[in-house]
Amino acid sequence: MARGHFAKSEAQAASVIKEVQGKGNAIESVGTARNYEQALKTCCDYLKEHKLGGLRDLTPEQAKSYLEIRATENSQSTIDMDRQAIQCMMQHVTGQLSPKETLDVVKSEKETIESSRSYTPEQVKAITEHQTERHALSTEICHQAGLRAHELYTLRPSGEVAPSPRDIHPDKFSHQPSSTQTYTVTGKGGLTREVQLPNTLASRLEQYRLNEPQQVTDRGVHYTTHYNVAAGHRFSDAFSKASERALGYSNGAHGLRHSYAQDRYEQLANHFPREEVMRIISQELGHFRPEITEVYLR
Fold first, then answer.
1. 114 falls in which pLDDT band (50, 70, 90)?
2. Exposure winner among 100, 243, 259, 263, fewest CB in 10 A?
3. What share of the chain is helix, strand, coil (3-state, %, to 5)?
4. What is the pTM of this model?
5. Which class for 275: exposed (0-12), middle (13-18), buried (19 or more C-beta within 10 A)?
């Protein structure tokens, strides 16, 4: 059976599953084998499209990026199946993982954004009043720039890190209500994008600049952070507790991205057709998919 880079995705996936099944009880049922094979075919299609080699060449780092990209438009059950299929291949066929090693769980952004809702500026202010100064700064940055919690780890001033090459709408970041400074963050799939912070917020952030970058691990992912700001899983948990104290409920820190999207829609709606507004916001949020922006605006 074909195994190389140039073999069809179906053949590469079938070859992997056949080899796994030949090693005993790695796959327990015919249904699981079928589901794994389909998941591996889809992964192989992605590798071919991006010229990343064959299915058996997939590394854990590439797998993580692939799963994060898939997580922007697929359910949690689909992402879990993809992860389990790749993990099985790496444990029993390619040796990229030992039998006891696992791939990190990746959360579906599609389900997250569908369950989250925005906060009003007054609600954000109320939440920050129940936070420490450091955590309040992170909340305001997420609100003003539409960041994910883990992206706070990756903040860098413009010029220190180049954004990923992408087609950029010429009116991106137009009609901002105040003067801003440009930073970059790295999000899902390793995409580095530019974001804008109001001057006053940027000045506060620079007070937390570290003399030397620090290595941080959050949910099994390693980051090099240049600011001593609250970020990642701990920030998300602390934010939810502050929101519960301030409002009596929490939509999670991800709701701040909803707030950003809705604020930007109001700022842009009188200047551009709706289709253009959606393109601009999707690029500013870093997912480049206007249909996902529709969910943020519900």
1. low
2. 100
3. 55, 10, 35
4. 0.69
5. exposed
Q: Give 216-226 pLDDT, tens digit per residue.
A: 998 778 899 99
Residues in the chain: 298
Tokens of 21: 């099944």
**pLDDT value for 1:** 43
Exposure on the CB side of residue 126, measured as CA atoms within 13 A: 15
Any residues with CB less than 8 A from the CB of 118 and at least 6 apart, and which?
251, 255, 256, 258, 259, 261, 262, 296
Q: Per-residue b/e over 105-125, b at no fewer than 16 CB within 10 Å?
A: ebebbbebbeebbbbeeebbe
Residue pLDDT, tens place only, 136-180: 999 999 999 999 999 999 999 999 999 998 888 999 999 998 899
Q: Residue 104 CA to chain centroid, in angstroms?
A: 14
Cα–Cα distance for residue pair 146/285, rounded to 1 Å: 6
- How far is Cα 152 from Cα 221, in angstroms, rounded to an integer? 13
Burial environment of residue 221 by CB neighbours within 10 A (0 to 12, 13 to 18, 19 or more): middle
Write down the residue that tokens 């691990």 correspond to. Answer: 217
